[in-house]
């Protein structure tokens, strides 16, 4: 019987977290899209950042209202609505005829990004305490699997340019974005099958319905004690929005709120979405060809999936705190390695390099004035390239030109990037959603988790929006150095405040962390 309960919880968790797959797909798709969209619409670095970052604004807007909607209509119904938004976004984005319409489509898709916080909330409310970490981590696992699938599809589409008539440099990005429609529709169909959150049902006084849900996910002898425990934590609470907001920011919630905000900012400010949302652009900075940079993204996807599985296997054994601290320490080391690799790189074009570029059908006439010039900064080199090529040409020629001119020990950068990705995905990546699902009391969860996710989305927006601008003005090395510096500060903070919550019920964690 216990096996049936675990099977059902696993099934519901996977369906709920499937939005993570869609999110990962979108994140990886846009990393391939930006190069071609930038060329087609002649975008500058800030506009390129907006194509990626506007989704973060959509998430911010949605998260401002998601909490109250979840409390009123339930987690399941809101997830269904968000799945429909993903579908609308994919349709508009893939058919966009202008930069502005693409922004609208991306904004709508960003509103659906808050499915990550809602699914974490839902899973945290149906999963048993001793397995909650694993189940919530499924969210991150599906994000990484979605990214891997998109990286593979993007690579195959890029390989198809010039081979399949319909796939050209002008249309390839439409196929990348349009591919998202398939999982969007699948998710809508699957969500219909999951039950409502039993803890939400109890908060609404629908005890009979909650009992029926609990029968599916916990042993019979645990149902009534569990219902009584949950009722005690929500009884007499002010469940209106204003009451929840006041409680969230009250003195007694100070420690819980600080932990959540620290985690939310840390997860994004260390640069994960700069690397994931701009993966081909990042590898282009090392001097890789277009095809090679897209191939590297597949390795990125494999690393992400592999180390998320590591997190799922060890999160209940080693705990949230140990994995988080170990991951942050490795992230600091990784960013230091990337900085050193980029910092020591030099750039110089010679006649042989120009001849190689001509064979790749790159227009080389403008490069004559750069032949023999030595550059010790990628900022200066790319600035001179920007003077020689139009906004429509520059995104398509920059990668091959850097590949021909750069002198770099790429192993330092590759080591840094892949260690960073591995460390993130066995620590702060999945664990943030676990922490969010655990530390907030039942009575304010519907407002607290979206609020914490709002902080994450706000931080992520600034990282995504300004990454192309940082590359243009500060260079790749200094950009990664800044991520390492904030990672070090975050490590010190987490060392002081992060508690261990493994194998504890939501109600027990509340008793420990929330002041009376």
TrEMBL record:
Pfam family, one: Sugar_tr
Listed name of the protein: MFS transporter
Organism: Photobacterium pectinilyticum
Topological type in the membrane: Multi-pass membrane protein
InterPro entries hit by this protein: MFS_dom (IPR020846), MFS_sugar_transport-like (IPR005828), MFS_Sugar_Transporter (IPR050820), MFS_trans_sf (IPR036259), Sugar/inositol_transpt (IPR003663), Sugar_transporter_CS (IPR005829)
Keywords: Membrane, Transmembrane, Transmembrane helix, Transport
Subcellular location, record wording: Membrane
Keyword rRNA processing included in the entry's annotation: no
């Amino acid at each position: 019987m216990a096996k049936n309960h675990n099977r059902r919880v696993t099934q519901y968790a996977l369906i709920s977290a499937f939005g993570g797959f869609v999110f990962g797909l979108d994140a990886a798709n846009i990393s391939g899209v930006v190069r071609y969209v930038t060329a087609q619409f002649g975008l500058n670095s800030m506009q390129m950042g907006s194509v990626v970052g506007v989704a973060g604004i959509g998430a911010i807007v949605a998260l401002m209202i998601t909490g109250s909607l979840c409390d009123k209509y339930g987690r399941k119904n809101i997830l269904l609505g968000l799945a429909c938004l993903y579908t609308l976004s994919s349709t508009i984005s893939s058919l966009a005829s202008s930069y502005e319409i693409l922004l609208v489509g991306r904004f709508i898709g960003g509103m659906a990004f808050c499915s990550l916080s809602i699914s974490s909330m839902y899973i945290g409310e149906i999963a048993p305490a001793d397995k909650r970490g694993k189940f919530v981590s499924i969210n991150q696992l599906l994000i990484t699997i979605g990214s891997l699938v998109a990286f593979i599809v993007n690579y195959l589409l890029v390989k198809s340019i010039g081979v399949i008539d319909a796939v050209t440099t002008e249309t390839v990005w439409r196929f990348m974005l349009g591919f998202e429609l398939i999982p969007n529709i699948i998710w809508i169909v699957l969500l219909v099958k999951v039950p409502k959150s039993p803890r939400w049902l109890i908060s609404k006084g629908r005890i009979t319905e909650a009992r029926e849900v609990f029968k599916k996910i916990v042993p019979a002898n645990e149902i009534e004690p569990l219902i009584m425990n949950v009722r005690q934590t929500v009884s007499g609470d002010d469940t209106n929005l204003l009451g929840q907001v006041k409680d969230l920011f009250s003195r007694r919630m100070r420690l819980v709120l600080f932990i959540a905000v620290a985690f939310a900012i840390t997860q994004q400010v260390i640069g994960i979405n700069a690397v994931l949302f701009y993966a081909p652009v990042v590898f282009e900075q090392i001097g890789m060809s277009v095809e090679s940079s897209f191939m590297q993204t597949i390795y990125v996807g494999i690393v992400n999936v592999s180390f998320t599985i590591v997190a799922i296997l060890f999160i209940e054994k080693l705990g949230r705190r140990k994995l988080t601290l170990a991951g942050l320490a490795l992230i600091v080391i990784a960013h230091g390695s990337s900085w050193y690799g980029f910092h020591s790189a030099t750039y110089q074009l010679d006649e042989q390099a120009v001849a190689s570029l001509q064979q790749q059908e790159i227009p080389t006439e403008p490069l004559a004035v750069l032949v023999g010039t030595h550059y010790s900064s990628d900022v200066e080199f790319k600035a001179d390239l920007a003077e020689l090529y139009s906004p429509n040409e520059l995104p398509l020629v920059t990668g091959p030109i850097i590949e021909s001119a750069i002198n770099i020990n790429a192993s330092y950068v590759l080591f840094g990037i892949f260690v960073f990705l591995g460390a993130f995905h066995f620590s702060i990546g999945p664990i943030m959603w676990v922490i969010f699902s655990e530390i907030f009391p039942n009575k304010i969860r519907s407002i607290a988790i979206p609020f914490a996710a709002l902080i994450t989305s706000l931080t992520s927006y600034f990282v995504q929006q300004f990454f192309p601008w940082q590359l243009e003005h500060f260079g790749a090395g200094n950009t990664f150095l800044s991520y390492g510096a904030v990672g070090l500060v975050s490590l010190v903070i987490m060392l002081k405040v992060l508690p261990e919550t493994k194998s504890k019920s939501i109600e027990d964690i509340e008793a420990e962390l929330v002041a009376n």
